[in-house]
Amino acid sequence: MVLTLYGVEPSPQVRAVRMACKAMEIKYVFKAVDIVSGDLKTPEMMKMNPEGNVPFIVDEDYVLCDSHAIVTYLADKFGNDRWYPKDIKQRKNIQQLLQFNNTMLNMRLKDIMAPLVHENVLVIPPEKMRGLQESLTLMESLIHDEGWLAGSHPTIADCCCAANVSCCVGIFPELKMPPKVASWLWRCAKELPGYDELSTFNIKEILAEVAQRMG
User: Fold this and answer.
1) Using CA atoms, how far apart are residues 108 and 48, in angstroms rounded to an integer?
2) How far apart are CA 87 and CA 105, in angstroms?
3) Residue 64: exposed, middle, or buried by beta-carbon count in 10 A (0-12, 13-18, 19+)?
4) Beta partners for residue 59, in sequence order
5) Which residues neighbour 141 within 8 Å (Cβ) at sequence distance 6 or greater?
6) Which site in 99, 165, 194, 213 is 20 to 30 Å from 13, CA atoms measured?
7) Domain boundaries, the chain
8) In CATH, what is the architecture of 88-214?
9) pLDDT tens, residue by residue, 69-120
10) What's the whole-number mean pLDDT along residues 54-69?
């Protein structure tokens, strides 16, 4: 049975999984879901994914949610040591970076976008934008001297963080990019498999949704 990934195409978390799959040359079938139409609330979907979150994968009889859990699972299963090293210290460093991505980048971006897209709240509180800016500023200290988040070559941490950072600066160009973060994102655009293809779609779709909400 072919691995199946369910998700919403504009989602940074979905894009992170897709970039990681491309990087590790993992074949999968992508099934887009329409959250607004209630695709995730059907009996079939609720049985597979009771929490109703995306992305999630179905690998034979195994269902797994959460982008970070998915990319680490796939790296372990397909044995791609380059993108998720088995060395315990390197692995823990990557897990720490994924935690930063979740708590600082993903949650702060989601805190801005969710009310805008789902609740028609069109005014973004300044403190939320400051929080997002602080996340990018903090990220400057996390980038390795060799140019990537975890060392001399990209890992799944770069895939996951790049999905969020590119979304942040694409939607909010007024954000100030720290120098190392800007260089790192440029490097991601040049070297991460699938970055351009998936990033362009992601940002265009989100901007279109925002424009529609704002009339």
Assistant:
1) 28
2) 26
3) middle
4) 62
5) none
6) 213
7) 4-78, 88-214
8) Up-down Bundle (1.20)
9) 999 999 999 877 999 999 999 999 999 999 999 999 999 999 998 877 667 7
10) 95
Range list of H helices, 24-66: 43-48
* Residues contacting 163, CB < 8 A, separation 6+: 12, 13, 15, 16, 19, 198, 202
CA–CA separation, 198 and 27 (whole Å) = 16
In this structure, what token pair is assigned to residue 5?
A: 């990934």
Q: Where are the beta strands (DSSP E) in the chain?
A: 4-7, 29-32, 56-59, 62-65
For residue 10, the model assigns a pLDDT of 82
- The DSSP annotation for 57-72 comes to EEETTEEEESHHHHHH
pTM of the full structure:
0.90
What's the topology of domain 4-78? Glutaredoxin (3.40.30)
Q: Which helix (H) or strand (E) holds 135?
A: helix 126-139
Cα separation values, 146 from 33, 41, 101, 142, 190, Å: 39, 45, 20, 11, 16
Distance of alpha carbon 89 from alpha carbon 85, whole angstroms: 9
